[in-house]
């Protein structure tokens, strides 16, 4: 459920107006997803618990889309030059790894909730527990429930891992305002992800001791922890909108982080079609050594006395 929060200037892809519009749309979709996710968890406390699962499916789909946009945006910012990650480790651990972890976690969350939704269907229940083969089919049902709960735990572990990667950013150029906004964004994301993960683990351990079906697999402990986690995600999303606005105001790159390890210079050189200065200097020296230097014949200067004698004889 986490969105990438970075203070890099490598997000400069495409036309400026279209890029700014895409960033605002991405930040707005994230806030909308947190509201939908909150509604899905709150619906589990009402009689419309099944419709709440549909809201959870919609929220996970939007979150996966937002993180895929972040991944493509940062890859476009470096012209899809993946070898640059070897020079800048943070580029691989943050801009590349975070969206992948969050998108993968959202996909697992979607599949786990989908299994619970199918399990809550009366047709599926009748299919698994029919007369004559009730024991075998109920075992299949229990396996499906177990897989669903394990997928939810794995999804939330990926969210926490992505939040940890998101917080591993080193600042060298960013001013204090940008750093405060960064901290205000990914700290709620990290706390919310931890609440979700702890709630899912406690819920899995509790439900493994009893035999429940479908909607009853989501216990009250995880539901309430999920509600508080959604509030933290919503706060982080609001601050993320402010961060996007601030970063667009300083789009000149003076207060944003550059690529490190020579990756920024290599990116600029690739865009301009120029060789590095060291290689260019070496190439010039090699060319100068191969080309013979033309020799100009030296003419002995005429003495000043001879010039005067020659002029007087004329």
From TrEMBL:
Alphabetized UniProt keyword annotations: Membrane, Transmembrane, Transmembrane helix
TM regions (residue ranges): 24-41, 53-76, 96-118, 148-165, 185-203, 215-239
Name of protein: Transmembrane protein
């Amino acid at each position: 459920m986490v969105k990438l929060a970075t203070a890099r200037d490598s997000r400069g892809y495409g036309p400026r107006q279209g890029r700014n519009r895409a960033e605002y749309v991405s930040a707005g979709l994230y806030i909308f997803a947190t509201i939908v996710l909150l509604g899905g968890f709150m619906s589990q406390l009402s009689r419309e618990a099944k419709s709440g699962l549909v809201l959870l499916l919609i929220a996970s789909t939007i979150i996966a889309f937002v993180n895929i946009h972040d991944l493509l945006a940062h890859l476009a910012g470096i012209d899809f030059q993946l070898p640059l990650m070897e020079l800048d480790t943070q580029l691989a651990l943050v801009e590349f790894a975070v969206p992948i972890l969050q998108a993968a976690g959202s996909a697992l969350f979607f599949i786990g909730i989908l299994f619970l939704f199918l399990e809550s269907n009366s047709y599926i229940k009748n299919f698994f527990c029919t007369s004559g083969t009730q024991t075998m089919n109920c075992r299949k049902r229990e396996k499906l429930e177990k897989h669903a709960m394990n997928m939810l735990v794995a999804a939330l572990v990926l969210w926490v891992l992505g939040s940890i990667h998101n917080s591993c950013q080193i600042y060298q150029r960013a001013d204090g305002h940008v750093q405060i906004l960064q901290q205000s964004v990914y700290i709620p994301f990290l706390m919310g992800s931890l609440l979700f993960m702890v709630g899912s683990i406690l819920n899995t351990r509790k439900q493994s001791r009893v035999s429940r079906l479908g909607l009853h697999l989501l216990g009250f402990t995880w539901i309430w922890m999920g509600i508080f986690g959604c509030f933290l995600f919503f706060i982080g999303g609001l601050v993320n909108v402010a961060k996007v606005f601030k970063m667009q105001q300083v789009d000149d790159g003076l207060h944003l982080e550059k690529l490190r390890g020579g990756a920024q210079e290599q990116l600029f050189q690739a865009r301009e079609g120029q060789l590095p200065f060291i290689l260019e200097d070496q190439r010039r020296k090699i060319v100068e050594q191969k080309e013979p230097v033309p020799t100009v014949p030296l003419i002995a200067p005429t003495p000043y006395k001879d010039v005067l004698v020659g002029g007087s004889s004329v």
